[in-house]
Every structure is written in C-alpha cells, then in structure tokens.
Specification:
This protein is of the alpha+beta class. It has 4 helices and 7 strands; from the N terminus they run ααββββββαβα. It is globular, with a radius of gyration of 16 Å.
C-alpha cells in the first residue's frame, strides 16, 4: 500500500531530523506529541528515553514529562520515584494543533486530585485521568507555575 510506504518514509525522515524513533506503535503518538509540544513550548527534548522526563524548558531548565493523546484520557505516572517536576498533557487535534489539557507541576495533580480522591493506580504503574479532569485542574494552576508557550 502506497500510504504505508509514505508513512514509513515520513517516520524515517522525522527520526533523522529529531533523533526520536517514531516507531509505528502506540509510541508514535507520544513522539509526535513531544515534537509538537517542544515547538509550541520552547522545550529541548532529550534524545535518549528517560524514565521520568522527556525534556526541559529552554528558558528555565525546568524538566518536563509530556503525554500526548488522541483519546479522551491521559496517563499520569504512579510513585514518588516517577513523579515529574512538570507535567504537560496535550491532545493532538486532527489538524495537527495541540489542545493543552494540563500544564504544571506534577505534584499539583497528586496534591489536588489523586490524594483527595484516593485513586488507585493501574498495576502500580500509572493513573488514567480524563481530559475533563485534566482541563479542570489546569485552570487551577497559577500561570507562574506553567511551562510558557512560545507560539
């Protein structure tokens, strides 16, 4: 199929340009989201995968984990040893634009939602948070605590 060949060619080009794998699995959404977020928020992405952070804000050096989705939810890591300094959750729209779901300290979600609700993680690895919850929490984060958009 020609479309598959084009997709493979595009992922190869993206890998060469950005140093990410862009593997054709669930990770592809994450890689695309990281690149779009990096351009929109002025982030320097790490070329190697790390357990907690995907990159850092160029202007401040604040470390950030990025979660991108096409679905009605996003994942948030479980465990103090996996808590990101900053957490940026974005929805990728069909036109390639990003909708910000949550932008703020990782501890904000823990303190203002997870502890209050007594939520249990999935297999002690992550929480599933709806877009609605993330957007509601995002409104409560002070602007000074957000990663700044540059475009």
């Amino acid at each position: 199929m020609e479309e598959i060949k084009q997709l493979l060619k595009i992922t190869k080009s993206l890998k060469a340009k950005y140093g990410k794998n862009f593997s054709l699995d669930g990770k592809l959404v994450g890689d695309i989201g990281e690149i779009l977020a990096a351009e929109k928020y002025g982030l320097k992405l790490y070329t190697e995968n790390t357990a907690i952070h995907d990159g850092e804000e160029i202007a401040t050096g604040r470390k950030v984990q990025i979660k991108a989705t096409f679905k009605n939810y996003s994942y948030f890591p479980h465990g103090d040893d996996r808590l990101p300094d900053y957490f940026l959750s974005v929805n990728i729209l069909e036109n390639g634009e990003l909708e910000e779901l949550f932008n703020g300290p990782g501890s904000f979600i823990v303190e203002h939602y997870l502890i209050k609700r007594g939520l249990k993680p999935y297999k002690e690895t992550y929480y599933t948070l709806s877009k609605g919850i993330l957007k509601t929490l995002n409104k409560e984060v002070p602007e000074t605590e957000k990663i700044k958009r540059i475009n």
